Structure of Transcriptional regulator:
Amino acid sequence: MLYQLAHIIRDKFPWLWLFVGRINSLLFHIKYHKNLKDIPLILKKHSIGYNIETISEYNITELAIFFQQQPNDVYTFFKPHGFEEKELKKLVDDKSFLAYIVKKEQKIVGYFFMRCSFLGKAYRGYMTDYQHRRMGINKLMGMCATDICQTLNIPMYGSISPANEASLKSAEKINDIKIITTLANGDYLIQYLPKEKL
C-alpha cells in the first residue's frame, strides 16, 4: 500500500512528492544516522575485484554518462528516477536515498540504490552495464544491498515485472523472494529476504 501510494504521489503530485521527500530525508537521517556510519565498512567488504562508491557530487557526471550509454531496452523495466545530472544531484542531497556505483578499472559497470523510508522500509533497484552482464555484478550489488539493510535493520522490497524473467532469476540467486502483491501496473511487489548462505 505504501509503495503504491508513493508512486501515485510521485506521478500525480510532484510538488507534494518533493515536500514529503524532504521530510522523509530529515527523519530518516535522524533515526538511522548511527547505523549509516557502518556502511563504508560494508562497501569495503564487498569491494573485491571491484570498487563500490557512494554517489556524490564528484561522480554524478560520470553516472549520468553511464545512463546515457545504456541501450533503450533497459529502461523498459527500470524507471526509478530521472537520469540527467540535475536529477541525480537531487538524489545526492536526499539522505534517505542510499545509492552506489560499482567500478572496474575506473569505469562504472553497475549502479544500485535503496530508497528508504523513516518508517523502516527500503526499496531496491539496480542496473548493470550492458557490456558487463553475467559477470556476477548483479549478485555483488544484491549482496551489498542486503548487508546494508540488515545493518540498518529494515526490510527490503522491490518491484519486478513478471515479464522480466532475467531480473527474477537474478534476484532469486541472491535472496529468498516473497511476493507481497501484484501492483496496479502488473508488477510484483516483492520482499527480498536474506538467504542463510549466499
